[in-house]
């Protein structure tokens, strides 16, 4: 069977993994999930008890969660090295370093902003404090990433890799939360512009918005969430 990526909308970090699957050019399927609705349903816990996306059903029917675990699974099967590098190479070490930075500190910096936005019972004073704290963290992490970016068109060379995929799914949160002008970080802004113009990223963004679009990779179509839960979710207690 083809693996299935369960990706979320709106503005899910998983958008970049859809793009990475397109770059990989191997058969896969998708399952689109409303993170404000379907993902919060108790039945979704059968796929991910943390009620988060992404989740990934492997070609053996096993469910993986967490961006880094899914990226590692893809890298191990990237025999043509379209989105990764030889496991013991310096480039692979560098890719894992950048992915870890994006997946931890860079992504986590936005957590206070999401907490303020999603607070079920509004608390203006607490929300203001969370936004102030979050904006400071986001700026700091953008400063650090700007220092890490080299002179190549993409993070690790002349073509996008898994590291670029993980980044582009999250980097757009800067604009959504109106933290700062992206041009404050010229290297990162230029990288984002190249990625946003990439056909795979355009395709992934269109799917996230619910638009019917055809990619150039190996997508074999969408699978309904109910079917994924029934076939691959853990049995009900």
TrEMBL record:
UniProt cross-references to PROSITE patterns, sorted A to Z: GST_CTER, GST_NTER
One Pfam family named in its UniProt record: GST_N_2
Keywords annotated in UniProt: Transferase
GO molecular function, one term: transferase activity
Organism whose genome encodes this protein: Bradyrhizobium erythrophlei
Residue intervals of the GST C-terminal domain: 88-216
InterPro entries hit by this protein: Glutathione-S-Trfase_C-like, Glutathione-S-Trfase_C_sf, Glutathione_S-Trfase_N, Thioredoxin-like_sf
Domain GST N-terminal: 1-82
Protein name: Glutathione S-transferase
